[in-house]
Amino acid sequence: MPILPEELRSSKNEAPDHGQRALAEITALLRRHLLIEGLAREQIEETPLDELQTSLLEGVTVQHSLAELREQLNALHPADIASLLETLPLNERLYLWDLVRADHEGEILVEVSDAVRGSLISTMDTEELVAAAETLPTDEIAALAPDLPQEVIDDVFEGLPIEEREHLRAAMSFEDDMVGALMDFEEVQVRPDVSLEVVFRYLRRFDELPTQTDQVFVVDRGEKLLGVLPIQVLLVNDEDKLVGDVMQPPPVVLLQHEKADEAAAAFERYDLVSAPVTDTNGKLVGRVTVDEILDFIREHAGEEALAHAGLNEEEDVFASVWKSFQNRWQWLAINLVTAFIASRVIDVFSNTIAGLVALAALMPIVAGVGGNSGNQTITMIVRSFALGQITTENARQLFRKELLVSLLNGLIWGGVMGVVAFLLYHDLALGGVMVLAMTLNMLLAAFMGVLIPMIRVKLGRDPALGSSVLITACTDSGGFFIFLGLATLFLT
Amino acid sequence: MPILPEELRSSKNEAPDHGQRALAEITALLRRHLLIEGLAREQIEETPLDELQTSLLEGVTVQHSLAELREQLNALHPADIASLLETLPLNERLYLWDLVRADHEGEILVEVSDAVRGSLISTMDTEELVAAAETLPTDEIAALAPDLPQEVIDDVFEGLPIEEREHLRAAMSFEDDMVGALMDFEEVQVRPDVSLEVVFRYLRRFDELPTQTDQVFVVDRGEKLLGVLPIQVLLVNDEDKLVGDVMQPPPVVLLQHEKADEAAAAFERYDLVSAPVTDTNGKLVGRVTVDEILDFIREHAGEEALAHAGLNEEEDVFASVWKSFQNRWQWLAINLVTAFIASRVIDVFSNTIAGLVALAALMPIVAGVGGNSGNQTITMIVRSFALGQITTENARQLFRKELLVSLLNGLIWGGVMGVVAFLLYHDLALGGVMVLAMTLNMLLAAFMGVLIPMIRVKLGRDPALGSSVLITACTDSGGFFIFLGLATLFLT
Fold first, then answer.
1. Closest CA of chain B from A141, distance in Å
2. Over chain B, what HEC string results?
3. Chain B within 8 Å of A13 (Cβ-Cβ)?
4. What does the pLDDT look like over A54-65, one tens digit per residue?
5. Phi, psi angle pair for A314, to nearest 5°
6. Quick check: B368 and A339 CB within 8 A?
7. pLDDT at residue B307 tops 90
8. In this structure, what are the phi and psi dihedrals at residue B44, rounded to the nearest 5 degrees?
9. Taking CB atoms and an 8 Å limit, are B328 and A409 in contact across chains?
10. Chain B within 8 Å of A83 (Cβ-Cβ)?
11. A278 and A255 in contact (C-beta within 8 Å)?
12. What local confidence, expressed as pLDDT, does residue A350 receive?
């Protein structure tokens, strides 16, 4: 049905919020409802029997507000409901989850973040979970599987036709960061020896083509991938031509065991909408679409940002205190050990400090500025590794550049602090020690800021994880040692 | 032309590297060539006249190696050349840039990062730049424009037909983070009163449809957007039907002045390949495609990671020392000021420290662990703001949760360090002060870790920028004050 221009225009003039306002409205509705419900419940508890009629009236109001909430909620796109659930504290989130239409539950579970998914699944029984999973295509069931109880997976598996069972088994066998985990099985396949007209007729038999179908895949009898037929090529060519004559070599062929971030880089570089996935024998097994890549990149970038601070995984902001504690304690414990070592370094020089207490006041400057400078270096190096701009081979040039930047920073800011220290304590030697210590600690920061991620990449580890804690450990202990060591040499 | 299955298979079995190997080969070739060239030059300088013949032979080798390099380089996809240039140090990068085919230069300039683009443009004269820009569609010229000298822009502008001049002027008027900056003008428009057959015929007249065309846009005579006609709908419907009868309301309509990250969220949420862009009157002005969104998200995520450490913009890892210094000095200077304040806090308590030097050794533990804990909190809060999971409205719950997590961490780790301090210094009161100070400083860290990004969001600023420096400032000065203050109260 055509939409009237007026309708479209009015909806556009209001606000380009892509559903943000609808979400805010439902949140308001939810809170109003919870308030009404809470009031009604209080009343029922306190109401003497003769006022029951009033309380029944209140009951009608509660029912009405609930119905309104439910209706507005289920008018939303499942992706919008997912994003609404993300923003709600646990109690409100679970209240709303109960009101969601059963046939949307599966899709919403796929859309929400890991942390929120866990909270939703924990309220559902086996039957509900099986029903929710069964509304999904196999690749999405596989994505949910790690969070589902085994008996749910078994039940779902039993209910699938043979071919889809195989798909599910295949999809579940891949790690999160493999192409196989992003793959779906909705690719459209055609043979090279049919005419474009036949392809057109074949496509018309679909009620709806799978989403993000920008090309169909040309395969032989053994399902070996021969080429791709972009829909655009199909559209601009004569219907009599054969598929084999107009098909193109695929710009990218992914392997199911490949790393997903290489696939993401290929999508970005070649501006793809979909790409075929084959096994090592060249047999077409599925396809990856750009919407999955978009989700992957967004999630991955988030993990990188969190990893710097030593947070292991996506933590739900409204997660329980206990869960948050578990996510954070390891790197705090590591930090405690490194801080303890730094403390022992200071303790070695306690006589020096006892002789000149100004040292105790100045030493955190040396350590702190070094830590900040090191954090800048390590953040940039980690980022460049992620972008593939550097490899462990151009190490020498990086070291040279970072050391020079630090030397410059050290001399300038060290010089400034040296003058300040001289003015404060009227001690020229102290000022000199300050300049030297700051410069040396910033050089150490640069050196370790390049070395730490390099070593971790060589070892095949994530260079970002806890990088902020590690670099600070070096610049604290190192800074105290350099500063107090120099002070012991030159000031006592 | 059909590709033989054998060809496809052999290319697939080798390595699923999506051009990585080709890039490595060219890098090797480049380095070999530079070596040969260097040797040849040395020889010419040192060669007596009678050995000129040999040296000429060497010259042939140089020419040959150069030709090979040039050929292999220009066989690459421009996006691959761009990514190759990113990984090379400045001298090698510029050497290679000289060898790139002129008609690829424009596309490569669009693909590389801001920092690398600057280095490439600085070697080109006006004429070369104009030639490069003229190979591009207007939306990409606009993307380059901020890095081009004004006279280049003027020249390019003069060379454009009237309609494209308007497009360029429009595209250049948007900020980097607006939808208008991501928009292109290659949308295909149709009228509602024509049949699908007419649309088919219209599409066949294109040699090639614009990339990522998953839908055509239905407009009236005034170019007002009436709806969209997905190619998939076009394919599965009868050719006799009218566009107006099968067109759909667009799932998302973007406005040109909207924030690009809202557009990105809409693409992610609704799995879009393209979306129409209108002005405030509903007139279709362009479209945004998912490849632009992919680039935007990738860049944006990088900026967020860098912002934490107080790096203002994407810094080329091989940038000059001076440029790197400029990018980093501001936050280092801020850090210097905050470290100085922390130092003054310590100085206030110099008598307490003189009385008990152990305090000087223990105080960095209190400050350091608080800083790390605060960094975890602020990183998570900033991340959640970016994902739209929290708003300044759910502040109370967040404060409550973060304070509880910190209380738990503070009591546990503070307790551990209290015992350690007692064992080291045989001073029960010192142990008690340690527990109390660590707990209080971690509570401060949690409070500021939520408050700082909240305030910045309220002020409309980027919550990530320098967040690591700011939180450390609080936990350092705060930690020293709390610890030394408690020590003064209870230990002297």
1. 18
2. CCCCHHHHHHHHHHCCCCCHHHHHHHHHHHHHHHHHHHHHHHHHHHCCHHHHHHHHHHHHHHHHHHHHHHHHHHCCCHHHHHHHHHHCCHHHHHHHHHHCCHHHHHHHHHHCCHHHHHHHHCCCCHHHHHHHHHCCCHHHHHHHHHHCCHHHHHHHHHHCCHHHHHHHHHHHCCCCCEHHHHCECCCCEECCCCEHHHHHHHHHCCCCCCCCCCEEEEECCCCEEEEEEEHHHHHHCCCCCEHHHHCECCCCCEECCCEHHHHHHHHHHHCCCEEEEECCCCEEEEEEEHHHHHHHHHHHHHHHHHHHCCCCCCCCCCCCHHHHHHHHHHHHHHHHHHHHHHHHHHHHCHHHHHHCCHHHHHHHHHHHHHHHHHHHHHHHHHHHHHCCCCCHHHHHHHHHHHHHHHHHHHHHHHHHHHHHHHHHHCCHHHHHHHHHHHHHHHHHHHHHHHHHHHHHHHCCCCCCCCHHHHHHHHHHHHHHHHHHHHHHHHHC
3. yes
4. 656 666 777 888
5. -50, 115
6. yes
7. no
8. -60, -40
9. yes
10. yes
11. yes
12. 87
Q: Is the ipTM of this complex over 0.85?
A: no
A230: part of which helix (H) or strand (E)?
Answer: strand A225-230
Could you give the percent of chain A with pLDDT greater than 70?
Answer: 90
B108 and A416 Cβ atoms separated by less than 8 Å: no
Cβ-based neighbours of A397, under 8 Å, separated by 6 or more = B89, B318
Contact B335, A372 (CB under 8 A): yes
| Contact call for residues B106 and B132 (beta carbons, < 8 A) | yes
> In degrees rounded to 5, what are phi and psi of residue B190?
-135, 165
- Give A 132-191 residues with CB within 8 A of chain B: none
How far apart are the C-alpha atoms of A437 and A366, rounded to whole Å?
A: 7
- Residue B163 CA to residue B452 CA, distance in Å, equals 47
Record: contact B302-A383, CB cut-off 8 A: yes
Q: Which residue has the tokens 């070094």?
A: A370
Say what the pLDDT of residue B53 is. Answer: 61
What confidence tier does A482 reach under pLDDT thresholds 50, 70, 90?
very high
- Asked if B260 is an interface residue toward chain A (Cβ–Cβ < 8 A), one would say no
Chain B 453-482, CB below 8 Å of chain A: which residues? 468-469, 472, 476, 480
Asked if A476 and A367 touch (Cβ cutoff 8 Å), the reply is yes
Structure token pair of residue B150: 């004004």
Q: In the prediction, which pLDDT does B301 show?
A: 74
Contact B2 A247 (CB under 8 A): yes
Judging contacts by C-beta atoms under 8 Å, the chain B residues touching residue A219 are none
The pair of structure tokens assigned to B331 is 């936050």
A18 and B273 within 8 Å at the Cβ level: the answer is: no
pLDDT at A59: 66
Instruction: Count residue pairs from A and B with Cβ separation < 8 A.
Output: 421
How many Å apart are CA A421 and CA A429, to the nearest integer? Answer: 10
Q: Which of B380, B469, B483 should be substituted to probe chain A, the one whose Cβ sees the most A Cβ atoms within 10 Å? A: B380
Quick one: how far is CA A204 from the chain centroid?
Answer: 38
Q: Which residues of A touch B3 (CB under 8 A)?
A: 226-227, 247, 249
CA B389 centroid distance within chain: 21
Cα distance between residue A437 and residue A431, in whole Å: 10
**Arithmetic mean of pLDDT over chain A:** 85
Q: How confident is the model at residue B52 (pLDDT cuts 50, 70, 90)?
A: low
pLDDT for A47: 57
Residues of B in contact with A373 (CB under 8 A): 328, 332
Two tokens at A446? 């640069």
